[in-house]
Amino acid sequence: MRAEVDRFRRGAALAALLGEWSTGPGPLYRKLADALSRVAEEGALEVGERLPSERELARSLAVSRSTVVAAYDELRARDVLDRRRGSGTRVNGRNRGPRGDGRVRGGQGTAIFQRLIDGPGPAISLACAADEAAVEVGQVMREVVAKDLDELLSEPGYHPHGLPALRQAIAERYTRFGLPTTADEVLVTTGAHQALGLLSQVYLRPGATVVTESPSWSPCLDIFREAGVSLVAVPLDEEGIDPNGLAAALAEHEPALLYVMPSFHNPAGVLMSSARRRAVAELASRHGVAVVEDNAYAGQNLSPTASLPAPLGAYAEAGSETLTLESFKGIWGGLRIGWIRGPVGIIERCARRKALADLGSPVFEQAVAARLVPRMEEIGERQVVSRRQQCALLERLLADRLAGWTWRRPDGGSSLWVRLPDGASADVFAQLALRHGVEVIPGSTMDPSGAHDDHLRIPFARPRREVEELVDRLALAWTELRRHGPREETPIRPIV
């Protein structure tokens, strides 16, 4: 029975379901009760599921214990929760709504996906690190309409493997980078996220193990969790995943997959060196484990002179299985085109699953992508100046307003991976930040073990005024946490 799984022993896991629960008028305990009631009615809380203790949830939400006690009392009065001696507070299901409401359930990436579904709210959300489209996207769309549209419309439009012109362009790009590739070794997907989902279906069975970096990106980790696997985390250093830790993890756990982000790791911004890529490839080959390298951020260099090493697959031994994922995230996230580069047999297995899912990605977008692929490096180089300016602005504002917050300047990507001082909990700070109008994604959601609780990912790819307002709000929330701690509240209860 799933209800017996103690999903919410850590209050932070429940907090991720609640969204912007503390905004708006009214006492905190009533807003908390309303938010818990809503997620119970929507089915995001299972019938019989145990909620965190009052003390644990109060710590995670940065409120007083009396606020949580009052909220739980309110929900028992509404017949949403039951209190059972010896088994805690549980959802009773008597007010549960129908399933199929469409709300994202479970997983550490819940808040990130739900923010995309809900759309912009009053808070500044740090859930999404994406910028507006590169100017070339609009230019190429107009080119496709002018030059390619009649040809595209003259055929049925179903390409489960991907538009041939796009697959060929991707293959030629990898060949130029030192990874000889044919079009048969490329599958076009609807973004890198779908690519990872397809590979998960091919490689993973319940009870298997995936080795990943610590930290990693929570929506990707959720794909693995959905497959029922165990996650083993290996720390990063300034060159990428630690080779000694990786060797130990591969030897001990015999994983089905190794998942890494070599080119501008999300969220740490680390670029894996050529020497480290070679070491990782050799270790994977020695232990017979397939490697998935997710290079969705490969075009987001922050150095005007640094060149990217060849993809990890270029260092792999003959017969090794290395799958390379990439997308147009750095050019425009709205161009939902990604791809897998890998052995033909694996590509075919993924293609069959993609055909069952959607019969192929949209043809017009693929035609746009086919014209953009040869220009990806040129576009990335042009964007370096603006990205460096955005990063420098956020660094300067944080240094001015938030003394003690530290970070390593990223090699690339679109965010700073910031550490809070004195072991402060990012889970707790996220709740206070929400009351000051900022939705923060705590570092604990980006680590398979729940570590990095003292870290935040702060995207810098946003307009200057928004960055200034963001840092002002973070500074106010930080001051409140340091001076006053969790907010105290004495609920007013009528006497009848």
From TrEMBL:
Keywords: Aminotransferase, DNA-binding, Pyridoxal phosphate, Transcription, Transcription regulation, Transferase. It comes from the Bacteria. This is Transcriptional regulator with HTH domain and aminotransferase domain. Residues 86-105 are annotated as: Disordered. Residues 26-94 form the HTH gntR-type domain. One of its GO terms (molecular function) is transaminase activity. In the C-terminal section; belongs to the class-I pyridoxal-phosphate-dependent aminotransferase family. Pfam families: Aminotran_1_2, GntR.
